[in-house]
Design brief:
Helix content: 55-70%
Radius of gyration: 27 Å
Number of domains: 3
Shape: globular
Order of helices and strands: HEHHHHHHHEHEEHEHHHHHHH
CATH class of the largest domain: Mainly Alpha
Number of strands: 5
CATH superfamily of the largest domain: Multidrug efflux transporter AcrB transmembrane domain
CATH architecture of the largest domain: Up-down Bundle
Largest sheet: 5 strands, antiparallel
Number of helices: 17
Strand content: 5-15%
Length: about 525
């Protein structure tokens, strides 16, 4: 179907009308984005994804019992219920179970623990302060609601942007994450509360700690605010090194950004990268007779390589794909080593331009929405600036590390669709952690009005350490398991998320909160609640 949207001259309009009446226009359909995965690789991806899922799930279940004892069993029941709800919702939507989707499920399970940890840490505080079990449980849930809702809403906003502006694997990952947020909230808040009430009414007992974990980190006195300049210097140094690498080495942009073709080829013997590169260069010859050297690097095992080329990428002829494949096979045949093309990908340059635009829009739009939400929720612009600076800090550091390490690690660190999904997930995780810390700071400032603001913020940061470390460690372990067992095709994506968890945890404590303190001190304003909220 075609539609004219511009006012042509009368004669041109008549000519067009006559042409349309004469018959169908010769408008061939050109494939601009194509991905082919061999059945062996597809099956391997599914097996690797399910294996990583099962291992990560079991590890999380055991850890919650190991740290929270009886309450850990309750959270495990909620996690199992959450898994059934999530899979059921995906099945009702007839969603295909792809590797990014499996990663989204596992990541959701890792982050679902956060709501349980927030509630349990609040209950533990009330118990240590001398409250009875029922009163501690009631207070713990009520005090945790604000942080849970704020943290999940900010993650939800990021996921919505991914669904709106993403495509393919990104959209699948984000859809799983959105559903997971709702199922996790229901399981963590309602199911656990029902189990607790039932258990306490019957036995009057419920344990929230092991002997060794009862008072862990309760007396922490780390100087986050007094020594904030040291963290500023460390972050600035890391950012400068990363930016310097991006300016000199650049980034390893995949075909999603540049356009072209990629092939994953598996040989019987370990591949000689330089020999593969030179042999294929002799086959990829443009119209002017120039050799086009492809990008070749080991992809997972030593006998598997990833080949990237822009040979005939701008050729719109119907035989362009077959000519490229003929040239590829001709070059590979000369290596005298049996091979199998297990995966291929083609992206038209026009699609890569669109992807760059949509990726930039997704990141910028996410930042704007999150900033607006934080300013609205906390009623002070200092919180919004602190959160945005921390997010920029995290994204730039991850980009810098990717620039420094690409071609230096035995797995792919390409900037592609999966990486953009990872960056937006890093943004969501960073703001999730930061909002929870901000929520505690706001609470402490209301309860300690006569103390110096810097001292109060420092106490608030130390009071959240147990929750911060528990959540970060659980999420990181889940990601580490996916990284080890999840397969080569998703390893670079998970590596970015692992970096994001580490950097995001650091920035919420050492960057976002100190910046809020410094901005408030410079402007001479107060972070106390508005008058209508004091009443």
């Amino acid at each position: 179907m075609g539609q004219g949207t511009r006012n042509e001259q009368i004669q041109e309009a008549l000519d067009l009308a006559n042409l349309l009446k004469a018959g169908a226009l010769p408008a061939p359909a050109n494939i601009v984005d194509e991905s082919v995965v061999g059945p062996t690789l597809g099956q391997q991806n599914i097996e690797d994804g399910l294996m990583s899922f099962l291992i990560a799930f079991v590890v999380v279940l055991f850890y919650m019992i190991f740290y929270y004892k009886g309450a850990g069993w309750v959270s495990d029941i909620a996690l199992v219920a959450n898994l059934f709800f999530l899979i059921g919702a995906l099945a009702s939507l007839q969603a295909a179970l792809t590797l990014p989707g499996i990663a989204g499920i596992v990541l959701t399970i890792g982050m679902a623990v956060d709501a349980n940890v927030l509630i349990y840490e609040r209950v533990r505080e009330e118990l240590r302060n001398g409250r009875g079990l029922k009163a501690a449980l009631k207070e713990g849930y009520q005090k945790a609601y604000s942080a849970i809702i704020d943290a999940n809403l900010t993650t939800l906003l990021t996921a919505i942007v991914l669904v709106s502006l993403g495509s393919g694997p990104i959209k699948g990952f984000a859809t799983t994450l959105i559903i997971g947020i709702f199922t996790s909230l229901f399981s963590a808040i309602f199911i656990t509360r029902l189990i607790f009430d039932s258990r306490i009414n019957k036995t009057g007992k419920m344990s929230f700690w092991m002997d060794w974990s009862k008072n862990i980190l309760t007396k922490a006195k780390i100087s986050f605010i007094p020594k904030r300049k040291i963290s500023y210097i460390i972050s600035a140094a890391i950012i400068l090194i990363g930016v310097g690498s991006m300016l000199t080495r650049g980034l390893n942009f995949g075909v999603d950004f540049t356009g072209g073709r990629t092939y994953t080829v598996k040989f019987d013997k370990p591949a000689d990268i330089e020999q593969v590169k030179s042999t294929l260069a002799a086959s990829f010859i443009d119209e002017e007779g120039n050799q086009l050297e492809p990008g070749v690097k080991t992809f997972g095992a030593s006998n598997q390589v990833k080949i990237t080329t822009n040979f005939l990428v701008n050729d719109d002829g119907r035989d362009a794909d077959s000519r490229v494949e003929d040239a590829l096979n001709s070059g590979l045949d000369q290596l005298n080593d049996p091979y199998t093309i297990v995966e291929s990908r083609k992206v038209d340059p026009s699609i890569s331009d669109d992807f760059q635009t949509s990726s930039t829009s997704a990141v910028v739009f996410s930042l704007i929405i999150i900033f607006a939400y934080i300013v609205f929720r906390f009623r002070k612009w200092q919180y919004g600036v602190g959160a945005i600076v921390a997010m920029f800090h995290d994204v730039i550091i991850v980009l810098g590390i990717y620039s420094i390490l690409y071609n230096r690690l035995p797995f792919s660190l390409e900037i592609d669709q999966a990486f953009i999904a990872a960056i937006l997930t890093v943004v969501g995780y960073s703001i999730n952690d930061t909002v929870i810390v901000f929520d505690r700071i706001r609470e402490y400032l209301k309860d300690h009005r006569k103390e110096a603001m810097g001292s109060v913020i420092n106490k608030a940061l130390n009071s959240t350490l147990s929750r911060t470390i528990n959540t970060s460690m659980t999420t990181f372990v889940v990601l580490l398991i996916i990284f080890i067992f999840g397969g080569e095709s998703i390893r670079g994506f998970i590596f970015a998320l692992m970096l994001g968890v580490i950097v995001g945890t650091y920035s919420s404590l050492y960057i976002a909160s100190p910046i809020v303190n410094d901005l408030t001190a410079k402007t001479g304003t107060s972070l106390e609640e508005p008058e209508e909220e004091k009443a």
